[in-house]
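Write out the bound-state structure for nicotinamide-adenine-dinucleotide.
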Amino acid sequence: MTSQFEGKVALVTGAGSGLGEAIAMKLAHEGATVIVADVSGKQDAVAAALGSPAVARTLDVSSQQSVLELETWITETYGGLDVLANNAGIGGPQALTHEYPIEAFDAVMAVNVRGAYMVLQAGLRLMLASGGGAVVNTASIGGFRATPYSSGYITSKGASVMMTRTAALEYAQQGIRVNAVAPGVTRTPILDGSDPDVLHMLESQVPQGRLGEPSDVANVVAFLADDALAPHITGQIWAIDGGRSAG
Ligand SMILES: NC(=O)c1ccc[n+]([C@@H]2O[C@H](COP(=O)([O-])OP(=O)(O)OC[C@H]3O[C@@H](n4cnc5c(N)ncnc54)[C@H](O)[C@@H]3O)[C@@H](O)[C@H]2O)c1
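---
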């Protein structure tokens, strides 16, 4: 039996840590050639752990030059792209909206909105060259369910939801599906430094009684990226939150 992503090229951004690392591992285990892209330097160890044909690339999604350089490299190396996990993101500070530092708002937007948008654009151009593909953006349940003290981040994830839906409509006829995962609170390094009492409180709010694990998200990304399993799914936002957003 061939693996589901045999012969497919997948780009995973923010792949040096957390959800991106888990997504890269899942897609590689299912046979994809994974481009492990991150700005942190941690992409090298992730790609080394996966082994050939996984390859590490430095990518700063907030830099247009960096995104375009990676796009050119993918074109020259593979001729196109089959799967994009558009996952890199940052959290931002905790503050009421009227006190939220505008510099922090700009920084969150530069990565989570402008950066994700530039990566989406590059991915779509590469997939048009390939004759189709699947994009999975990493949004958040914060993209459709507000929480206080994180207005910059929440606003950015609302944008992620709508860039997903818009691109799905625009490229449905070109064989490109565009979906998003919307994780609830998931155990990754983005939570480092969080107050354990707050995490316990968040956990108690999840109907299933536990926070998410990176594999919970990676499995759904692989499903949505798989043209055999999800050929008629596009423009959808998949909550992976143990039921948190259901009520
Ligand atoms: N963990 C959660 O609870 C949760 C919930 C909902 C959504 N998300 C989203 O999931 C995605 C991954 O987050 P995570 O929890 O794995 O966090 P993480 O901090 O563990 O990983 C994020 C990765 O993105 C990379 N990154 C940051 N800025 C970048 C840039 N400019 N260019 C390239 N890479 C960059 C970081 O270096 C890091 O490796 C983010 O978009 C985040 O908003 C996370």
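---
The pocket of nicotinamide-adenine-dinucleotide is lined by residues 13-14, 16-20, 38-40, 42, 59-62, 87-90, 111, 115, 138, 140, 183, 185-186, 188-190 (CB under 6 Å).
The chain has seven helices and seven strands.
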